[in-house]
Amino acid sequence: MSVIHAGLILLSVVTIAYASSVSNYENAKAQLEEYIQNKKKEINPRFRPLYHVAPPVGWMNDPNGFSYHKGEFHLFYQFYPYDSVWGPMHWGHVTSPDLVNWKQQPTALLPEKEQCFSGSAVTQGDQMTLMYTGHAAIDVEPYFNESQYLAFSDDGVNFYKYEGNPVLPISPNGSPDFRDPKVWKRGDDYYVIIGSKTLNDRGRVLLYKSRDMKSWEFLSVIGESNGELGYMWECPDFFELDGKFVLLISPQGMSEKGDRYKNTNQNGYIIGSFNYDTNEFVQEVGFQEIDFGHDFYAATTTEANGKRYLSAWFSMWGVPHNEDVDGWAGMLTIPRELRIVGNRITMNPVEDIVSIRDGVAVDGDVWSNQVLEFNKAVELIINSDLNQKVDLLLEGREGGGSAWLRWDPEVRKVVVDRGWGDVRQVEWSPIGSKTWRVFLDSSSLELFCGEGEVVLSSRVFPLGGWKLTNQSPQTINVKAYNLKRSAPE
After folding, report:
1. Is 98 annotated in the active site?
2. How far is the CA of 442 from the CAs of 67, 149, 150, 173, 257, in angstroms?
3. Contacts 24+ apart (CB under 8 A), 250-259
4. pLDDT tens string 4-31
5. Nearest to 233 by CA among 194, 264, 200
6. Alpha-carbon gap, residue 237 to 246, rounded angstroms
7. Using CA of residue 178, residue 174, residue 230, residue 191, what is the dihedral sign?
8. pTM to 2 decimals?
9. CA dihedral of residues 353, 354, 356, 360 (deg, nearest 10)
């Protein structure tokens, strides 16, 4: 009897401690939301996007938990609210009915003993479950450990962490780099892939399986660097698209090769086939960059309504973030719809992006050396003769940053040039349309070529809206739409 009594006392102590912990966590969340609302008043809006997701205050990097739950899209992101530089990671959160019009939600996850690194979301019955990497400091080298954690929500807004965390405490080979779980359901089973690396520093992706997301079985290594694809594969994603399987990865440590791999870290994909019986992914088309611009990383996808959508961090590590002096840093790309055409992925803006068009600003021919002026948010439809050079200068109406969009028929390359040798370029062979579709926001440029077979995303920081000068030797045709706000202020 005394043993039972002691056990009840211990249980009561644990229950009280847990309740106290939950109460402290909820209080911290409430205090954070109050801080955000007050801090927003200090943000300089000059570079704030009108139709891209950005943090309300502070720092943003990787998109997380991109999902479709109960008829609504959810998009989370790595978030540090207290400064416009990277810090202890939280999860920010926005929702949308259509991937165009976004609503800011309360911060979904706050760090405790663990920082809340990247992860994903899945529906379990009526519940939304987040799986994320808990990044914790330890006392011995390498002084950190990464494990996989769960959090749950009954309403898709308020999340609580699983008492039994971590559910995957260590990688199969003991590597401390073990992060960014991407989970999906197939039949009665859940699968997750996790980014990691070998003990001789080659990036790889690990595959696990579970019935309840709490107990996991290691299945296989579905991809590994051959020595040329970097020392760590971050933010993996794995999905079926147009009859093929795609392994999407963000390799760290790739060497620059000509026009390719010029960013600090890369983002690309491998196309192949996969067998759920053998858990083997067979590569059919080798690694290709998915976006060729200056600022694109940690892309992640979700499926809804029979379509596969992608969002990525619209920034890059190891470069200046010009907006950070204004109290915020980082944003996400326009969500894009993916297809496989031939041996590569095409990307196009989601169809509903046309819903934010707010009148035609220009429609007609633009002569050589003619200048057009626009507001901060505009969509350009550009048609030209690709047998001649194209040279378009985009700059601020009141100064600031600038970029040139170029095409040279002799080398058949599309170029985004931010000046001072800061160039990204790629060969383009149109598969159909020869139109350029350009999306300009307060501090960004996204160029979609043709059917979306070439896309370049780059941050540019103009002041006072945009100005276009046709420096081409030819007349071009431009249709321009003003775009209205669809992102939270």
Report:
1. no
2. 27, 36, 36, 45, 32
3. 250/195, 250/297, 250/298, 250/299, 251/203, 251/225, 251/287, 252/203, 253/201, 253/203, 254/228, 254/229, 254/230, 255/228, 259/413, 259/424, 259/425, 259/426
4. 454 444 444 333 445 557 789 999 999 9
5. 194
6. 8
7. negative
8. 0.95
9. 140
